[in-house]
Amino acid sequence: MNDCDFKSRVDFVSDEILEMIIDGGFQVGDKLPNELEIAKDLNVGRSTVREAIKKLESQNILVIKQGAGTFISDKKGLMDDPMGFRFFRDKNKLVRDIIEVRMMIEPTIAEMAALNSDREDIEQIKYFCKKVEEDILKNRSHTKNDILFHTAIAKSSKNKVISNLIPIINKSIEMSIDITDNKLVSTTIECHKEILEAISEHNPIAAKDAMTLHIIYNRKYISEKLSKIE
Amino acid sequence: MNDCDFKSRVDFVSDEILEMIIDGGFQVGDKLPNELEIAKDLNVGRSTVREAIKKLESQNILVIKQGAGTFISDKKGLMDDPMGFRFFRDKNKLVRDIIEVRMMIEPTIAEMAALNSDREDIEQIKYFCKKVEEDILKNRSHTKNDILFHTAIAKSSKNKVISNLIPIINKSIEMSIDITDNKLVSTTIECHKEILEAISEHNPIAAKDAMTLHIIYNRKYISEKLSKIE
């Protein structure tokens, strides 16, 4: 068997395992049958199964825990950088393009959150809203809690595809805070509170407006800042 | 050295290679230095480098061509299924959620295409518009050319983050054509022509309206169809 044959067998086996996971009702954290069983089932060698499992691990579908076995990853196949942001060389173009996309999606996300959030969702949003304010008042970095605030809103939309767009919002927040150099902090606190209030009151129009304003302030400041550099 | 050490060394080496690709100005199709050179540079064993390269191949960052060497993949680290659509068990919820997200992004994409497209972009959009019509009139599947039509529009927006959202649009088109069972074909031809015309005339409002209409027709039909099944 040459290298090419081996590679296509690995691809075949990883596809089979993936199908088994999806159709077999495996949940996050469930343990995969061991290498030997899979090898027998699919009538292939153990080394092929081992390679296939490694491939699915690099794709964040499985996680191998030494000595314990192989498990379904909680990342559900979502890559750490699904949009390939690492590959953007022009970071100023990235920050502009990404906030443009954020403007397309996040006001509607806030609107959907106002319509679909339950009590628990609102508690989460409130919690991170408070955390961001605390961070800012104590002069700590608020990036992490800011991301969690927006993530809680996105999850409240109850649209599962949106959950997978969260990395876009996160990257935008990270780059925006970096560029605006903490100049927008008091506006951020105000905007966050308005968004929270509108979602809590299940007012979709107010939620959309508040989120739109929040992004406009960021975009305006970023534009001004970048036009000075360029 | 135990398995854990090996794994963290592989992670270290794959991060180093990735950094080398990004900072070293490597372009799609460029050849990576060979295993031995990388092993020497990073002071690690060849087997570690080999594993790291395999990992980057499963992440669509590198492509290994047997006998020729290792090259920068044209997929730029974008996975075949970056949104993890394979993992959605409820396909009816997926088709609804995905068209909701498409409605958030694609009208604005059409607007941006009307503003930013050049002559070559418009030629591409026109070409695939014609191809879809031919497919439909000859009773062939138009899924592939329909996807290429919408992809050409997304690329004309000149927003690089949008290019990475194309898999959402593609999946939506694929599932919509499947569900609407070719019932919307004449409307599709009309809508596509209107979108093309507006973009060709660099009329952003008309382009946005035409795309919005196109998605509304799809969503309406899909809703009706799903409500009968459920």
Q: What is the secondary structure topology, with strand pairs?
A:
2 copies of one chain form a homodimer.
Chain A: H1 3-23, H2 35-42, H3 46-58, E1 62-65, E2 69-72, H4 91-116, H5 119-137, H6 143-156, H7 160-163, H8 166-180, H9 185-200, H10 204-229
Antiparallel strand pairs in A: 1-2
Helix pairs in contact in A: 1-3, 2-3, 4-6, 4-8, 4-9, 4-10, 5-6, 5-9, 6-8, 9-10
What does the model show?
Chains A, B: This is FadR family transcriptional regulator. Chains A, B: Keywords: DNA-binding, Transcription, Transcription regulation. Chains A, B: InterPro entries: GntR_C, TF_FadR/GntR_C, Tscrpt_reg_HTH_GntR, WH-like_DNA-bd_sf, WH_DNA-bd_sf. The structure is a homodimer of 230-residue chains. The first copy, chain A, is mainly alpha-helical and 230 residues long. In chain A, helix 2 (35-42) packs across helix 3. In chain A, a hairpin with a 3-residue loop joins strand 1 (62-65) and strand 2 (69-72). The first copy, chain A, is elongated and about 60 Å long. Chain A has ten helices and two strands, in the order αααββααααααα. A two-stranded antiparallel ribbon of chain A has the order 1-2. Chain A binds chain B through residues 2-4, 18, 22, 51, 54-55, 58-59, 66, 76-79, 81-84, 86-89, 93-94, 97-98, 100-101, 104-105, 108-109, 112, 159-162, 164-165, 168, and chain B through 2-4, 7, 18, 22, 51, 54-55, 58-59, 66, 76-79, 81-84, 86-89, 93-94, 97-98, 100-101, 104-105, 108-109, 112, 159-162, 164-165, 168.
